[in-house]
Amino acid sequence: MFMDHSVSIRPITEADTDKIVKWRNAPSVVEHFIYRTPLTREAHLNWFRNRVQTGDVAQFMIVDEEAHEEVGSVYLRDIDMENKKCEYGIFIGEDSCRGKGIGSAAAKLALDYAFGTLGLNRVFLRVFADNTRAIKSYENAGFVYEGRFREDVLIDGKGYDMVFMGILRKEWKKGTE
Questions:
Q1: I need a labelling partner for 25 at 20 to 30 A (CA). Which of 39, 94, 139, 155 fits?
Q2: Distance of alpha carbon 98 from alpha carbon 72, whole angstroms
Q3: Where are the alpha helices (DSSP H) in 102-159?
Q4: What is the pLDDT of residues 24-78, one digit of tens each?
Q5: How far is it, in rounded angstroms, from Cα 131 to Cα 22?
Q6: Residue-wise over 156-173: b if at least 16 C-beta within 10 A, else e?
Q7: Which domains occur in the chain, in start order?
């Protein structure tokens, strides 16, 4: 378990499945995901067994230590040990916990794991360009703007711009010294 003030992260378990599925299907979470197909219990268990348990993904539950409850999930996916990189993702499932800095704190903990434990060199993410709240949270965690892909994602025939952000090990190290 990693901890930053009143937020900690712990590896997900199979027992977290129902909570993950509930959060991931909530409209307030789905609207910020590229892949919007409803998540079933079976699909999550498949993800857990074939991606998390194999080490292709490191996924954690975000715990609000003050409230003593899980409030979301953070993950590092497509972990590429040859090129020392992965993609970052997060969602805060509890609406009442958004805008409190929990996401930024969880991101810092996930980056500590990515760089400190896994020894990666780069962590990147994709975010809808109009999701300014998430972009600000990512900046607070140390991610920097790398580019904008115009109409990169089509949803119901409409194109959406995506912002790409990243952080390098040397940038993370500066922030931890």
A1: 139
A2: 10
A3: 102-111, 132-141
A4: 999 989 888 888 889 999 999 999 999 999 999 999 999 999 888 999 999 999 9
A5: 22
A6: eeeebebbebbbbbeebe
A7: 2-176 (3.40.630.30)
